[in-house]
Amino acid sequence: MKRTNELIVALAVLAVVTVITWGLFAVGDNMPRGVTPFSKDVYHLHNTVLGIVTVIGILVFTAMFTSVVVHRKSKGYEPAKFTHSTKAEITWTTIPILILIVIAIPATSVLIDMEDTGGAEMNVKITGYQWLWKYDYIEDGISFYSALDRDSNRARQIGSGINPRDVDNYLLEVDNRLVLPTNTRIRFLLTADDVIHSWWVPELGWKRDAIPGMINEAWTYIEEEGVYRGQCAELCGKDHGFMPIVVEAVSPEEYRRWVEAQGGEVAMEPEEHPGFVGRDRASGSDEQPEESAETINIAVLEQG
Ligand SMILES: [Cu+2]
User: Fold this and answer.
1) From ligand 1's centre to the CA of 270, what distance in Å?
2) What is the pTM (predicted TM-score) of this model?
3) CATH class name, domain 2-115
């Protein structure tokens, strides 16, 4: 009779915990699937692990709440007095090890895939600056800076009077997008010129630190044309939140046309870029192109 009661309570608790978990998943938002085979692997890995931990959570909470309700003191239950159980210790060591092995096998294969940057069809060097990015297309000889776009930059100024909600893709738009071909294996070489930055576009499925004096590698293979947005993911100074990343993925044919239109243009130095608000700019020593006047912001305000 006692056993039957325990079973009924356990099933009731199991149902309640499952329904609550289900509800949380229903209203919650999952991570993006992304647009590369790799990002999809990451997405599936995430779902698998989330499934495993959810089942563990439901079982543990069911056991816990059932014990609390069924074996409560008011019912006259005497607590167990034992202090050691070899059987219990072996069980609660072995089961977690097996679970970890089951999770580690797919996770390791995805990680190894992430690190394998071989077989690239093109290479792009990414350099982080305070606070913009530079892209060098190694094979195509194209090189340019990519900074926060004019509209976002204007709206973010103190007392600008512009409602950020009126700006399209506020803080997620740049002046020069990183144009990349689809269905091409692309290797990225990441570094930085001043402090550590981190290049992160969620739809590509990874983020990588850009460290001064070091070259980090990453790769991608974009399957769908589109515009993918990201941000610097390493706290890199006061304008860390104002150096977005925009990747524009186009067909290989369109990419070739874009390369021809660029004509292997030589890049400006960062100090000459209208979006650059660095150490040198703050000194205000040399004259700047007229269009850059409005982008002189807090750095200059601080100078008084
Ligand atoms: Cu940064």
Assistant:
1) 14
2) 0.75
3) mainly alpha
